Amino acid sequence: MLEKYKVAFICVHNSCRSQIAEALAKHTASDVFEAYSAGTETKPQINQDAVRIIKQLYNIDMEEEQFSKLIADIPQPDIVITMGCNVECPYLPCKYREDWGLDDPTGKSDEEFVKTAKTIEENILELKKRILERSIKALR
């Protein structure tokens, strides 16, 4: 068995989009890669709207295993996915990086959280497919 790639989902506060990505990646792609999330700052808790929506949509309790972490708290990733910080995205050395350009749903409607979660899920499944197909040149 090949060693799994380590994928880090990064945003500034590590409380909403990157946490959703970590939860959904562990749920849908743990057979292909290890998922982590982190930020340059932390929050005392994961965004409670995100926790509630992910529980409703996927029956995943993000607070069971996840908490807001700093970049220094996670293993060195092979792949870095930035969520779309709209500010200076944190830099983390890696073999491959991409930005998903997602707006932060914090403070917005449940519909925005659902839309963000569904987009993240689609992106994760696409990333999983590209890893399996070995179509990311930097990882060959």
From TrEMBL:
Q: Which domain of life is it from?
A: Bacteria
Which SUPFAM superfamilies does this entry report, sorted A to Z?
Phosphotyrosine protein phosphatases I
Species per Swiss-Prot/TrEMBL record: Syntrophomonas zehnderi OL-4
Residue ranges spanning the membrane: these are none
SMART domains membership:
LMWPc
Task: List residues of the Phosphotyrosine protein phosphatase I domain.
Answer: 5-130
Q: Where does the signal sequence lie?
A: none
Sorted alphabetically, the keyword list is: Arsenical resistance
- UniProt name for this protein: Phosphotyrosine protein phosphatase I superfamily
Q: Which Pfam families match?
A: LMWPc (PF01451)
